[in-house]
Design brief:
Strand order of the largest sheet: 1-2
Structural class: mainly alpha
CATH superfamily: MFS general substrate transporter like domains
Largest sheet: 2 strands, antiparallel
Mean pLDDT: 79
Distance between the termini: 22 Å
GO molecular function: transmembrane transporter activity
CATH topology: Growth Hormone, Chain: A
Main location: membrane
CATH class: Mainly Alpha
Membrane topology: Multi-pass membrane protein
Number of domains: 1
Keywords: Membrane, Transmembrane, Transmembrane helix
CATH architecture: Up-down Bundle
Number of strands: 2
Protein name: Major facilitator superfamily (MFS) profile domain-containing protein
Amino acid sequence: MKEKKESEFVLKEEESSNNTSASIPKQEGDRGETSTGFKLYKIRWPICAFFTMSMAASGLAQIGLGPIMTIIQDIYDVKGIMSSLLILPFTIFFIPLIFPANYLIENYGIRIPVYIASLTLVIGAWIRIFVNTSYYFLLAGQCIMALGQPFVLSSPAKLAGVWFGDKERAIATTVGSIATPFGAVIGYLLPLPLISDQDVTPQDHAESTFLRYIIVQSIIITVLGLPVMLFIQNRPPTPPSISAANAIKKKSGGMCKSMKKLVGSIDFIWLVLAFSSIFTIYTVLGAALAPLTASFGYNSQDNSLFGSIYVVGGVVGSFIHAIFLDRFARYKLQYVIIGILNCISFALVVFLIDIKSTPLTTCLLFFMGFAQLPIIGVSYSFCAELTYPINEALSCGFLQLFGSIIATLFTFLATSMISNDQKFLALYILLGLCGVGLLCKLLVREILKKKRAGIRGTIFSFHIGNHHFPNSYLNKTRSDRSDFVPLIDSDDVDRIG
């Protein structure tokens, strides 16, 4: 009876694999070939590297003025929301621009969006050199750079899905997703040798020192942001996996239909809320770190140390989670671990930051970064699995969209509270948000649709008549074929679907 059920399952899968199998490239003997006969091209890693550099440049542009916000306020006599608007456009502009960005990615690939992002990044960076003519040139440059960011911010999962095999997707997605935080590390550290609290007077010296900082920052942004335009390609000559092959043939039905599916998925809603709870804290820290720490007696040099060590902890945590994802694919388990560590680390910061100990606060922020920032890469990978076959750029873009909306609202709220000497109230509200995020992480189900498609493609890769067999099946002797079909744990069946 059991054998009969298994054979029925095989026949059903054979029927669903007819179209896909015909597109599978036969690359026998190639060192870049996966176990299912798909070829992995060596250029995928240089493309990923230059794409990561471009996103790091965007992260530098977004965070590079944050650590010295109080210095900018003193030099140009701006306060409150006018100074916060140097950072907030990167979150605000994402909300309307994600729609044209996803349209371009879905219909024309990632090359055109990358060109748009790179050009706006470089143009906006150099417009800021006129800041001493008017503060609004600085604000305009930041806004122009922010206009291009949505065109690449939702692309890491898309790039990973198009260029990388099943066992590389999580690490490739993580590399792309932590690129912006890595750029933030540069943004936090760069002011240290170039500008300090003592450079706010006299006015001529302050303006020339800040201009020098802007020029150096713009050079780095240009060097990091432009090379990707020479290397970026929409897709390899042949797909790297069964899910990538399916994505080429199968359209998601258009943006409106995909949006309806996303909004109608309760698991996607839980995922959005779980992601937003931590992404909001990251956004608030970027926009309000300087005024927040200044209220506790820290200076701009401390801000650079705090911000950079926070992101370094996040990079370490992100790679650890990516390795475990590629190895074990336990998305929900890692999601819950992130939620628990996030609550613990943020609570420690809230209750111990008033001690005014720079070494202690530095260690706490490293732990908080280690706990929080992996949410970006894990969420992108989880989202791509949960919403398959919807385009990765679209699903991850909407994940980022809703996260940006929530983060923007809380950032305005927290900034207002901090400026009105209600910093602890702002911190307690964010701590409560951590608890809500942990609850949402417990509620989201682990349905790995993309992994399921990959397993089906592994078992059925070519057909003879109406029956499908894997390419590597041909290389086995008759006595070896009985143990070919891989066994899947019952737990994996429940998770994979």
